[in-house]
């Protein structure tokens, strides 16, 4: 079963710039969650904080019983073995072929023979649709291909927690659909806990079990996807519809005068360019492909949500009930389809998860690291002290600058409550 990630009262600043404060949420084990939010609200910073590459001033991130904001470098190294991370910019070593990039975590963190490495790498290359491109250098392929190669590398060790920072950026809509399906299929196969940072509303509508949103330095919401999709909060509605009218401005939040002007324009029939889609009409969640096992998280999610239900707004409750019915129906149809086409009973234990014992993910946050020697440059720099093992985690530039950050401020403000 995937590993729960429990975040409480997390606050992060760079110098005097507070990024977000008092973020409290739990990524439930094996469930797929999405994090939305306007550009610059700190989604990528949040993701890096979850793996201990950035250090919060306050709060905790508990993974498998360990608070990674407080633990030793050695413990952090062990915890990181649970993660597979696709950073926002793909992050490949520029002087290595795609094959070598994707093989990198296997060679670095397992003792697998080259034959076995080859099997796994080629399988993942195939999964992300890069067959035939394995000998190319990152500089010789398109941005979308680099992104897919980064994803293949993130998946190569069957991690228990998968963090994807905008897996769709640079991808066309069809490839985006394939990647989304791939994440659902992987979730079905290995029951990994997944967090997807995205601006893609289609992904948000159809992929995650839960959605959260960051805005104005706070977590506006985190809960079942139906809760956010049916939300009446102006910021959520504006974000989903992609309208320029609303609390989200081009850079910072808008002031009241501008908002009043916009209201007047709207009253005069002038639109803000957003879609008129009705997001409260819930689209069924994407299901694993035929032949995949059922997602084990579905039953856990349902149990959790049913418990939560009375505390949710009425329209969210309605939407949740409707989507549960829809899902039951779809799963019934899938079972019937599987039974018809394969002549076998659809079984919960089909395709049992094959979770590697050494789940290590290595990535960096720069698009292409253009150097041949990984001991000079992004790789090989010690992240936290002298634990040689920790050096096996490639360190983004930002994280390195974080080592220079001053100590945590004493007695900083701690906001109560959660999301
Ligand atoms: N290492 C760093 N040092 C200082 N400031 C940083 C660092 N990393 C991020 N920031 C700042 O934190 C804020 C949030 O950045 P982040 O990259 O997390 O945004 P985001 O929500 O992921 O945006 P986008 O949707 O554009 O990717 C930005 O103002 C950014 O400049
Ligand atoms: Mg980002």
From TrEMBL:
<dbReference type="InterPro" id="IPR003593">
    <property type="entry name" value="AAA+_ATPase"/>
</dbReference>
<keyword id="KW-0067">ATP-binding</keyword>
<feature type="region of interest" description="Disordered">
    <location>
        <begin position="322"/>
        <end position="419"/>
    </location>
</feature>
<keyword id="KW-0813">Transport</keyword>
<feature type="compositionally biased region" description="Basic and acidic residues">
    <location>
        <begin position="322"/>
        <end position="336"/>
    </location>
</feature>
<dbReference type="InterPro" id="IPR003439">
    <property type="entry name" value="ABC_transporter-like_ATP-bd"/>
</dbReference>
<dbReference type="Pfam" id="PF00005">
    <property type="entry name" value="ABC_tran"/>
</dbReference>
<feature type="compositionally biased region" description="Basic and acidic residues">
    <location>
        <begin position="397"/>
        <end position="413"/>
    </location>
</feature>
<keyword id="KW-0547">Nucleotide-binding</keyword>
<dbReference type="InterPro" id="IPR027417">
    <property type="entry name" value="P-loop_NTPase"/>
</dbReference>
<protein>
    <submittedName>
        <fullName>ABC transporter</fullName>
    </submittedName>
</protein>
<dbReference type="InterPro" id="IPR017871">
    <property type="entry name" value="ABC_transporter-like_CS"/>
</dbReference>
<feature type="domain" description="ABC transporter">
    <location>
        <begin position="5"/>
        <end position="241"/>
    </location>
</feature>
